Structures are given as structure tokens and as C-alpha cells.
Amino acid sequence: MTVITRPVPPPVLEEVAEGAVGQRRCRHDALLQVTGQAMYGVDLRAPDMLWAKAVRSPYPHARIVRIDPARALSIPGVVDVVTARDIPYNRYGFTHEDQRVLADDRVRYVGEPVAVVAAETLRLAAEGAQQLIV
Amino acid sequence: MPFDLRFWVNGKEVHIEVEPDETLLWVLRERLQMTGTKVGCEAGDCGACTVLLDGRPVTSCLLLAPKAHGRHVVTIEGLGSPKRLHPLQQAFIDYGALQCGFCGPGMLLSAAALLAQNPHPTEAEVREAIAGNLCRCTGYQKIVQAILAASQRASREEIP
Amino acid sequence: MALPYFVPTSVQEAVDILADYGDDAKVIAGGTDLVVRMREGVLRPAALVDIERIPSLSFISLEDHRLRIGATATISTILESSEVQRCAPVLSEAARRIGAVQLRNRATIGGNLASAVPSADMAPPLLVLEALVHITGPSGERALPIDAFFIGPHQSALRPDEVLTFVDIPVLESGSGAAFVKFGRRSAQVIAVVNAAAWVRVQGGRIEEARIALGAVAPTPIRARNAEALLRGQEIRGELLEWAAHAAAEEARPITDFRGTLEYRRELCRVLVWRALEQALHRAMEGE
Predict the structure, then answer these.
(1) What is the pTM (predicted TM-score) of this model?
(2) Do B71 and B100 fall within a single domain?
(3) In terms of Cα–Cα distance, which of C98, C91, C124 is closest to C32?
(4) For each of chain B's 160 residues, which pLDDT tens digit applies?
(5) CA of A7: which chain B residue's CA is closest?
(6) What is the DSSP code (8-state) at residue C146?
(7) What is the fold, at CATH topology level, of the domain defined by A46-131?
(8) Is the Cβ of C41 closer than 8 Å to some Cβ of chain A?
(9) Whose CB among B137, C185, C254, C256 lies 3.0–4.6 Å from C265's, allowing a Cys bridge?
(10) Into how many domains does chain B fold?
(11) What was the ipTM of the complex prediction?
(12) Chains with 3 or more CB pairs closer than 8 angstroms to B?
């Protein structure tokens, strides 16, 4: 392991001059972050919410021949299986909308989402994801 | 068969029934509604789920709930309080150590355990102590500075 | 998903439960390997036998020049142990390179060995120290030399109804020294691309005995016995280490995978064995 042995003292937080420019500012949400109170997407909860688990491609490049949701849907508590077909506009992106939300005819990278299983609990969603035939 | 779990979370005794293959991470977040401990890789590699188990940092994603039986767990919610921040929390704010903040809870607990055991660590010791906490945003520089600053500011702070 | 979960308080109890379940129950200690494989769906045990609470498994003791480490001693405990630091510092050296703090607080020496992964970091040091692995099963206790413990990738000599109970290591005597080196793509929290350990005993400017072990370059951790033979009885001089390192690299049977190519691993063997030997010699000569 590379060991850094030179002493590097942390910067002293000195007082700054009057005026707006150069004033020390703390992140508006720093307190929430350091106390664990900041809410991220995965922390949100709503009553009667469903849980989703994505089914992702293990292959870097492959054709999707068939997706059979029957076995997944037969698990009590698994509510729905969503595929590209269910998405009206299956494109997104920052400057160019060229990325698919869910893969349609083929997958282009390991980990590309192919389908999403929705269920009453995360465990059921995971089970449904395991049972989905792609 | 369900497991009758009794353990301490942030100093308070908790008594719940769990499935043996539920992880401590799950129990904290879903059963106890304490979402301060974060979900990352769920494979013990990223450290976002770090909690203290009997004072030692562990990745709660790999800790099956029965293993916490009779033991003391400290989560980010148990580090300092909004009225009286732990010196590390104050230093993280002052030094701008966090950006998105997701690594924060795990990072703070690893650092707290370090300072409890080694109140005046070297930079190398700080980096080794947080080697199991990955940060995607910051490049670690200000995190390390904040931890060193906290160690210099505070006399030893007891963790609950 | 009611998974039977047992928390025995004795080794015998654990063995009885394992025997009841045939091949289907799994021992769990730190869980840092098992839980990952369960989450991935690779492992679906019919029951778990948690040995973490068995008091007789979590010790470190020194007796008659033998260092004994219980199977459930964590890597952190080993790292922090003054007995290990004094009697087998190469083990502390390896412990320090395992994962990161969180992993070391949970992973155990028993688990590291029982996982039988070729890259297990505890294996090369224990191989060069010629440790004994103690195992208890329904038919009683047995002790296996560590180089008979690893059979193949993920395959050890442990039977499904057996528990690894402790590791028995001869204490490092004066005039001997050992070292461990690990190369990974990061400096922490990484599986070795190649790891290596060396042990030497010196006397009057000669290497009396040498042992070299390599990990992650064969289906199991291995000893490089041809390289060892080259060193035995030899006067310590410059080229010797290079020859031994080269020989050890030839004995490795690495593969190409996402961590590195066959060629790179072979080259790493040469470099790491050289470094380990040099360090081991230095320590041996210091202690003469």
C-alpha cells in the first residue's frame, strides 16, 4: 500500500474579508448530510408503494429473442413486469436522446436493463426478477 | 424460522423478529425506518452501509441480522446530535468534505471509530481507515483534511 | 423464506447439525464470502450453522513454540495481536493487505482458508510456515498439513459435515525470516492479481532452507518447490534471488482473466517472489 508519510496539515480556516466575494459558505444541505437525515431517492417511502427490481443483461452484446413474464407474474405479490414495449417514448439522454430506458431488440452492454419487475416488497420483486425468462 | 433479535441501536434496546437471511442493513432501513445508513453495492465493497458493531466498522450489507444479537450497533443517526455535532460532523461541514453526501454516513462512522481508537492519526492512518469507504464525487482530499482537522480540534469524544 | 439458522455453542453441536443436513447446510462465520454468494444466487444453503458464538474457536495462543489461531479469529484480531506480530509477523503483514477495515473486522482466518480461493491472502504465509489445519467432524479430529488442504478453486479438503477449528503454526525461530507481498489493481479492498510469500532460514551466510508460496496463479495456492531447491544450501549472493524468482515464475500456472493476463501474472510472480525473498532474507539475517 502506498503510504503517504509527509505531514500535510489541513488548511486553517482563517477569517475572510468583508463583502460577498471570498466569504466562506457551507453547503446548504451539509447538516442534513452529516447527520444522515438527507433523503435520497432510495430513502423515500410512500404508503402502498411498490418495489421495482431491474433485470439486466449479463451479455455485452446480444439479441433479445423473447421475454416471458408468466412465471414471474405467477408469484403472489408480483404486480407487473415492464418491458420496452410498455414505454411510449423509449429514449433519453443529456444532449442526444439516444439511450433506451429498457433494451428493445438487443442489449449493448453488460448491465443494460431489459425489464423491470414491480412487486409489493423488494424481496418479491427480486424473486420475480429471478423468475423472469429472458 | 424467524429469529428473535434483541440488540442495541444507538444505545437503545431493540427487540424484533427477523428472518435469518435479512441483513442488518435491511433491518435498520426497512424495519426500523432508519435510512441514514445507505445502500450501495450490497457486496461489502463500497462501505456506504458502514455501521459500528461493538465499536468496529462493518459493512451492514453482509451482516445477517441474527449476528447482531446482543450486540451494540451505532449508525449515523447515533453520531452526535443536531444540537451537538460530533467534531467530525462539524469538520465535514466546515471543510466542505461532502458533495452528494451519499458516502458521508459510512465515511463519518469509519472516521469516528478511527479517532476513538487513535485520537491523533497520521494522514496515512486516516487514508487506511477510510480505504473501505468509496467516494465517487470528491477525490477524498477534503474528507481526509476534515478528519485530520477534527482530530486536532477535539479532545477524545466518546461515541455512544 | 424461512431459512433454518442455528447458533451452536460447541463444535460438537455444530458438527451434529451439519451431519443432519448432509451436504446442504453451510457453516457461516464472518459471512463476507458466503453472504455475497447467497445474494448472487450462487449459493442456496438449506440451513446455516453460525459458528461465530462458539467460544473455543476464537482464540490466539502460544504454547511450546506453536502459535495457534482459532478459526473464527477475525483478520483484525490477527492484525492487532502482539503474539502474531512477535511469532509470525508475516501473517500480520498479510492480514493488513486483506480488504479494508470493515472487511477485516468480520472476515476470519477459517473463512479465508475454507473459501479455498486461489487468491486467499492467508494461504501463502501459512504455506511457507508449513502450518497445520485442524478439523473436527463426526468421526473426530484430524490435522492436515496446509499444502494438503487446498484441492481446487473453491474446493478444500473440508467435508460438508466438518468444521475447521484452528490453525497451528510453528513460531519463527531466530535466523529465519518471512515476508508476504500482494499485487492488486488498487492498494486496498482488492483481490490479488498475484500474491506471494517466502520463508528462509540462514546460517553463516548460507540459505539453509527456503520456502516459497504463490497465490492466484494456479487452481490453488501453491509452493514453488523447484525454486526452493535452487536456494537450499546456497551461499547468499546477488543472482541467487533472480534465479529463484525466475524458477518460481516458471512453476506458476496462471490464467488470463479480467484481473490480468497470463503473461503479466507470470512476470508479477518473478517480481513478487524476488521481493518476498529479499525481505525474508533481510529479516532472517537481522534476527541471527
Answers:
(1) 0.92
(2) no
(3) C98
(4) 789 999 999 999 999 999 999 999 999 999 999 999 999 999 999 999 999 999 999 999 999 999 999 999 999 999 997 789 999 999 999 999 999 999 999 999 999 999 999 999 999 999 999 999 999 999 999 999 999 999 988 654 444 4
(5) B123
(6) G
(7) Aldehyde Oxidoreductase; domain 3 (3.90.1170)
(8) yes
(9) C254
(10) 2
(11) 0.95
(12) A, C
